[in-house]
Here is the input.
Amino acid sequence: MRVLVATDAWHPQVNGVVRTLTSLANSARRLGVTIEFLTPEGFPSFAIPTYPGLRLALPRWREIARRIEAVKPDAIHIATEGPIGHMVRAYCRRRGRPFTTSYTTRFPEYISARWPIPETWVYAALRRFHAAASVTMVSTQSLTTELRQRGFSNLGMWTRGVDTDLFRPDRAIDLGFTRPIFVTVGRLAVEKNLEAFLSLDLPGTKVVIGTGPQEAALQRRFADAKFLGLLENGVLAAHLAAADVFVFPSRTDTFGVVQLEALASGVPVAAFPVTGPKDLLGGHPVGVLHEDLRLACIEVLAISRQACRTFALTRSWENSARQFIGHIQNGRTDGFRKPQAAIAAAASPAMRT
Here is the structure.
């Protein structure tokens, strides 16, 4: 089977969506499914005000159609709700082709943090966007429940995985920093809530890995922290494994793949009890979730690094790919029936929420 995934997020961006799609393609290939990508590459683009470094493509209709038809996909999945996502959605609607989508980013919260636009307006637009899909894939149970309460339908679970060969404890290097080492990784932007971590009174050293629009301001304000910039692949894995605690201060991420990468490295997680951390860590002795983030950071030091590694070994990208493929196969069948009717009947109970 050949699947075309349309995405506005792609290299050189470094984020959870890009890492997820790249890992999905690698794992799906081993399961006999080929995934091709329709990305911003080759399209003109424009910068987003108040979001330095991020650009959105300006796709042309004829080129979108040409790229889709050149791939001859058996199924189409729309990973993002940007210009490419909207244009591929329009293509499918015009030609009566079924398609699936995924809800990966809390755009309503991200947008309201930058502009005075009510979250309800953005949720209404997203609800319309996803309503035409055979299946909308969601990464956690709590986000599924929240979206259903907001009127979204045809929701299916698509969890995330981790590369346990890349991220592992024996990659640790000596950073030369005073211990304990508290590290966070991600885009340095307002929605990541990094001030909540960097303003904590903690022993040892606070380390920040990543780049983004808030980088310079955060460096000036928190001169005691170590800002290491963008690290990737083996270098990132070595730095993660060298830490004592991974701190995940975001309140808006729908999952947070980097939490699994830290756990695979043998590093426990301290976070707020919100969507993402709560779904991943809840009930498992591999992290501490608390509204007092400092308390979580201190208490998590007592957690076994081996327990973190053992937990991560059960979260493979292959299992994630199997879920994705299952929804794609169901979506191809259901999409030819009445648009919003029979998806629940065809889906496996293990895959449907």
